[in-house]
Amino acid sequence: MPWNDKSGGGGGPWGGGGGNNQGPWGQGPKGPSGPQGSPPDLEDIIRRGQDRLRRALPGGGGASPAVFALIAAALVVLWAFKAVYTVQPDEVAVELRFGKPKALTCTLAAGLVAFGSSWWLYNPDYPLLSVVQTGLNGFSATGLWVVLPSMCVDVVDYDELESSQRREGAYSSMFSWVLKFGMSVSMLVMGPLLDNVSGFDAKLGGNQTPEAIFAIRALFTGLPVAALVAALILIQMYPLTRERMQEIRAQLEARRGTV
Length: 259
Hints:
It is a single chain. The chain is mostly helical. It has 2 domains: about 40-85, no CATH class; about 95-255, no CATH class. About 65% of the residues lie in helices and about 0% in strands. It has helices at about 40-55, 65-85, 95-100, 100-120, 130-165, 170-200, 210-235, 240-255. Helix 4 runs antiparallel to helix 7 and helix 5 packs parallel to helix 8 (about 240-255). The protein starts with about 40 loop residues before the first helix and ends with a helix. The relative contact order is 0.10.
């Protein structure tokens, strides 16, 4: 496997360092900085960051306040556009043409590619590749937030057909609860997984053993991929297709009129 160290020098999984008490990124452990081993001065760190920002700005940081005002205005306009953007009729072609289950299948497949590719895209030798993985993940997450609530509406219509009751509030609450429950469980189990499965040692900081780093990467990639594969299998059993929902809508409108 290309991530294994074959140099014989005890390097990390990316071939860097390892010897001379170095970590997987080729860096040795760093002790506290400052005079006589004291912690670094926070104000000095902030001051150096401000100096770097000034050097990065056009004109060596001598830009007028109007430039900053223009940048701030552009950010506000962008935020407002994203906040009030309305999906147009010709922008829902995926759900209308292929159906919501197939749209969700495409979204889950995109997530599978995003998390699966993290094994290669999270590489300290090429840090900009992580931006690609973030973009793929963002695409999948956006699709989920668009498709899942619309499928919840279909479930509400189906429930009305079966029970003659509209229970949007109950289903919306359950949808939100399941999301929060999943997030809570993931946060609860990640600590024990790191300690008992990956071999992570907090005392080593960024100088984890190659085995621990390999295990962490396997967990970060493998768990989401396994969950997405399971979701892809389950979505194939989802019965509320586009044709079925058209039938349900017609029956509801015939019974209680158009809403």
